[in-house]
Write a structure and sequence with these properties.
This protein has helices spanning 8-16, 39-48, 149-160, 227-243, and strands at residues 22-26, 29-34, 56-64, 73-74, 86-87, 110-118, 123-130, 138-140, 163-165, 194-199, 204-209. It is an alpha+beta fold. The strands form four sheets. A five-stranded mixed β-sheet has the order 1-2-7-6-3. Strands 4-5 form a two-stranded antiparallel sheet. It is extended, with a radius of gyration of 24 Å. The mean pLDDT is 82.
Length: 244
């Protein structure tokens, strides 16, 4: 197969071979699965190979797959009339710590996704790596290949707790200095752990447990053909002749 007719996924597979765990295309997007030990080698090949030449790093983001595929709102086992949503309140961030979701066997919780752009070939690719240790998610830093990865990796470290090995200055970038935890982890409480306020008596900023915020379930509305919608449609249809 010539280089002109081969898809991007096929060209990447032919060039990288067993250095990648997999490559697939979906809706015009190409994603490469890479193990941590091959992360830097694959990234360097994608950047330097003349047939690929992904010279620009667009984004680095963390992903938490805890409770992946689970939802907290019902669509199948609630009544087809009356209320149009049924909420269980069991989604990530709304549970007691002892009842928190667990990762299934053989499933890695944390991953890093990198978006690369080839200006020369007008192509994009996503490179994804799953950290092997959920308790200490560790992925090699890409700052030695693309300097733009610096702040992106700091953000993923701050919000997800993913450690980028070899990063020159890995410290928090969005949360406060004394912040505890990582806000984008799905087991992080949605109302936070502490809140900050200025105390007029002590004349200083103080930290205290969250008491002023109550968790709410924010659920997209599920459209069903219940009586309210039928009545509204009938009223709208009856109003059209009257307007004429």
């Amino acid at each position: 197969m010539s280089a002109d007719t081969a898809t991007l996924a096929q060209r990447i597979s032919a060039r990288l071979g067993d250095k990648i765990a997999g490559v697939h295309e979906w809706r015009g997007e190409t994603t490469i699965e890479v193990l941590p030990e091959n992360w830097l080698a694959v990234a360097r090949t994608l950047r330097d190979d003349a047939d690929l030449h992904f010279e620009q790093l667009v984004d680095v983001c963390g992903i938490d797959y805890l409770s992946y595929g689970q939802v907290e709102w019902d669509t199948t086992d609630v009544t087809s009339t009356g209320f149009s949503r049924g909420v269980e309140g069991e989604g990530a961030g709304r549970f007691d710590w002892a009842e928190r979701p667990r990762i299934g066997p053989g499933h890695k919780r944390f991953a890093v996704a990198v978006q690369l752009l080839s200006i020369a070939h007008n192509a994009r690719v996503c490179m994804r790596c799953h950290a092997q240790d959920d308790s200490l998610p560790l992925v090699p830093s890409l700052t030695g290949l693309w300097s733009a990865a610096d702040w992106f990796e700091r953000e993923a470290f701050d919000l997800f707790g993913i450690v980028f090995d070899g990063h020159p200055d890995l410290r928090r970038i969005l949360t406060d200095y004394g912040f505890v935890g990582h806000p984008f982890r799905k087991d992080f409480p949605l109302i936070g752990n502490v809140e900050v306020r200025y105390d007029e008596v002590q004349q200083r900023v103080i930290y205290e447990p969250v008491t002023s915020v109550e968790p709410r379930v924010l659920v997209p509305r599920v459209i069903r053909h219940d009586s309210r919608y039928v009545q509204a449609q009938a009223e709208a249809a009856a109003a059209i002749p009257a307007q004429k």
